[in-house]
Amino acid sequence: MVRRILYALLSLAPIVILLHYVADLDPTMEFVLAATALIPLAWLIGEATEHAAEHTGPGIGGFLNATFGNAPELIIALIAVHEGLTEVVRGSLTGSVIGNLLLVLGFSLLAGGRGHTDRESSFLSFGLIAVATLLFLIVAVPGWDGDPDRSSLAHLTIPVSIALLVLYVGATWYSLRRHRRQHDSTGEESLGWSFRFALLVLGVATVATALVAEVLVGSLEVFAEKAGLSDFFVAAVIVAIVGNAAEHGGAVLVAHRGKIQLAAEIALSSAAQVAVFLIPAVALLSLLIEPLAFSFRQVEIVMLATSLLITVAVLFDGRTSRLRGGILVASYIGVAIVFYQAGERF
Length: 346
Fold this sequence. Notes:
This protein is about 80% helix and about 0% strand. The protein has one domain. Strands 1-2 form a two-stranded antiparallel sheet. Helix 2 (about 10-20) runs antiparallel to helix 3 and helix 4 (about 60-80) packs antiparallel against helix 11. It has helices at about 1-10, 10-20, 25-55, 60-80, 85-110, 120-145, 150-185, 195-220, 220-225, 230-245, 245-255, 260-285, 300-315, 320-340, and strands spanning about 115, 320. The chain is an all-alpha fold. About 55% of the residues are buried.
């Protein structure tokens, strides 16, 4: 019954996109409709990822979900760069890493309960995020004084971005080879969708998610103004959650079905991919639009490092439980409160 409802709700995506261009809807109504349309799309991405993982194993399955799920965030970020909303871009990207570490993973553990994670894969993701956080400081620290968008910082961002992308390529090559060997050794056969069809569904669902997310972000400023929220909070919390809709829904549904290792791979792979791929990719692509500097605020760096330490502590022994999931979700609420109090940069 639930699956039929979700399949029926998939029709909301083209309706929302069509109404956005042909009708003059109230921005608040657009926000509600777009947010609702993202729910079945997130489910579809999770469904396709699970079928793809039957052919590749949980490691590569998590990588696929992270890749397709982060595509909307890339599009949202570039649109915001084009509109000159640099604080929104930076806030949404760091908020995305934190959201995956605490919120997505936390809800996955709440849904999946007791289980185990792949410790080697988990700590590879933790290491990538830690290195990225340290490299961000190269540009962020000088940006705490003076204009955070000055050209010298944008130029300094370029070599840092290239270093992160090189790190991402190397880590991805190692991780995919490792997971491929593990899956080959199991000899499991897939009884679900074909791998090609699962990838096709992932691609179509990702494009639809990006278009719907664009509509939602376009109505966020009016929504935030009516709610009395700062642009930074909207970016770091609301936009980040919206951009991660695919990972939220996909990881939680997969965990609920007992595949906690795949769910953890989705959340952690996505967090690491945002840190070492998406953020530098946005910075380099922004050179074609408006140079973007890694001038992250102090509160962003502190909360990013704190979230990483909390997640490492929770998953250090490779075991999962609902209590640990609750700790992660509670931690995210604390981070959101800090972001709310931080307000705008002065």
